[in-house]
Amino acid sequence: MIGMSQYRQEYISILYRQETIPRQRRWYCLDKFALSKTSRKIGVSANIHGRTILWPWLKSHWKKLVRKFGVGNPLANRIVASVGSVIDDRQEKDVRNFFKRNPLPGTERVIEQTLERVRIRSNFLRRIKAEFG
Fold first, then answer.
1. Terminus of the chain with fewer CB atoms < 10 Å: N or C?
2. pLDDT of residue 1
3. Using an 8 Å Cβ cutoff, are 11 and 2 in contact?
4. pLDDT tens-digit readout, 65-107
5. Helix residue spans in 4-107 (DSSP H)
6. Nearest-angstrom CA–CA distance, 54 and 45
7. Calculated CA dihedral for residues 91, 96, 101, 102, nearest 10 degrees
8. What are phi and psi of 85, to 5 degrees?
9. pTM of the model
């Protein structure tokens, strides 16, 4: 069913609306599609189920993604920034170490800004939980 459609919007629609497909299989199909030549943009970080798998997936496929979009592509900054919406301050060290081991020129500033947003959001949530929790 996945390979029948020619348009990426149809792929995404099929993957998100097929509730009968087990979640892991759905994400496996999405994973295959995300690295295909057909794919351009998928908003996995906005999906509640995608939040738990985005960072591990990104780490395991980073080299393939860099080969696909290349060095100096602004898309790299968007991918790095999307990490900020799925991690918390406990994972900050892991993210920082990953990008030290896998540097990509032009993303240094975005990495720092993303980690700063993560720290701010985590501190805010902690204060809110302490006040209202």
1. C
2. 47
3. yes
4. 888 888 888 888 888 888 888 888 888 889 999 999 999 998 9
5. 8-17, 23-34, 50-69, 74-83, 92-101
6. 7
7. 100
8. -85, -10
9. 0.65
* Rounded percentage of the chain residues whose pLDDT exceeds 70: 62
Q: How many whole angstroms separate alpha carbon 54 and alpha carbon 41?
A: 14
Cα angle at 71 between 66 and 77, to 5 degrees? 80
Q: Is 103 helix (H, G, I), strand (E, B) or coil?
A: coil
Do 84 and 118 touch, CB atoms closer than 8 A? Answer: yes
Q: Which residues contact 78 (CB under 8 A, 6 or more apart)?
A: none
Task: Give the pLDDT confidence of 45-57 residue by residue, as tens digits.
Answer: 556 666 677 888 8
Residue 56's identity, in one-letter code, is P
Q: Which of 19, 8, 78 is nearest to 45 (CA)?
A: 78
If you search the block for the tokens 């170490």, which residue do you land on? 97
Kindly give, in sequence order, each residue whose CB lies less than 8 Å from that of residue 88, ignoring residues fewer than 6 positions away: 118, 121, 122
Q: Is the pLDDT of residue 18 over 80?
A: no
pLDDT for res 90: 86
Q: How does DSSP classify residue 95?
A: H
